[in-house]
Structures are given as C-alpha cells and as structure tokens.
C-alpha cells in the first residue's frame, strides 16, 4: 500500500455528476478493467492501455502499472500544493490512482482524455496520505 495518491480533478468546481460517463469511456479505452474494492470503496484494476495515458520515470515490465488501483469518485476532497502553501480542494468527478510511489511523472494524456470525455479541464497532483 502506498502512502501517496495521484489525485486528478477538474480545474473548476463542476455541479454535474459525470462519473458514469467517465467509467464507461475509461472501460472502452481500456484505461481501467475489472471492478474491485479498495479501502472499502468501489475501484478498478488498471487497464491494458493505461500506459498510453501516463508516463513513468522508468520502463515498466507490466508490474508497476498492473498494481495501480483507480477509483472514480462522485466527490472527493484532498490537499494540493498551492503557490505558497498547501490548499484543500473539494471536487466532483475525480480520479484517484493508488499504489503509485511517485514514479508517474506525467499524466497529461489522461487529463486530456478526461477533458474529451467530460468537456471539463483536469489537473493532477500527488498527495501524501
């Protein structure tokens, strides 16, 4: 279990819940796969094409990405790094990636896919749990 989480959220507060659409499209794009339970909440195993949407600082032989767990949350809150200090954030339609250790160095393609799905601009931040 990792002590950090990659939290990908809309840049602006969105009133509409779009998680079912996100789940459907991420399944279709093979970014997520089988449903599982993680920390008592519904989640997904990583899909076979998740590596097309994130970049690692090393070449993965399938073990790293295969161990990632993805939650798609109707609403989530967390702490993000602000320009001078930490700030809290509360957003709908969030993607949470667990079991990473900071080796994911780019998730821009995943944010772009989410924007294409929802029409909302996304960003991501690592958060220490």
Q: What's the arrangement of secondary structure elements?
A:
Blueprint: E1 4-10, H1 19-28, E2 32-38, E3 41-46, E4 55-56, H2 63-66, E5 69-81, E6 86-98, E7 104-106, H3 108-118, E8 122-128
Antiparallel strand pairs: 1-6, 1-8, 2-3, 3-5, 4-7, 5-6
Give an overview in words.
This protein is an alpha+beta fold and 129 residues long. It has one domain. The chain has helices at 19-28, 63-66, 108-118; strands spanning 4-10, 32-38, 41-46, 55-56, 69-81, 86-98, 104-106, 122-128. The strands form two sheets. A six-stranded antiparallel β-sheet has the order 2-3-5-6-1-8, sandwiched between helices. A two-stranded antiparallel ribbon has the order 4-7. The mean pLDDT is 89.
- What's the gyration radius in Å? 14 Å
* Count of helical regions: 3
Unreliable residue runs: none
What gap, in angstroms, lies between the N and C termini? 11 Å
Number of domains: 1
Strand order of the largest sheet: 2-3-5-6-1-8
In total, the number of strands is 8
DSSP helix fraction = 10-25%
Order of helices and strands: EHEEEHEEEHE
Main β-sheet description: 6 strands, antiparallel
Structural class, by secondary structure, is alpha+beta
Oligomer: single chain
Apparent shape:
globular
Strand content: 35-45%
Mean pLDDT: 89
Question: Key features?
Answer:
single chain, alpha+beta
Outline of the structure:
With 129 residues, the protein is an alpha+beta fold. 19% of the residues lie in helices and 45% in strands. The chain has one domain (4-128).
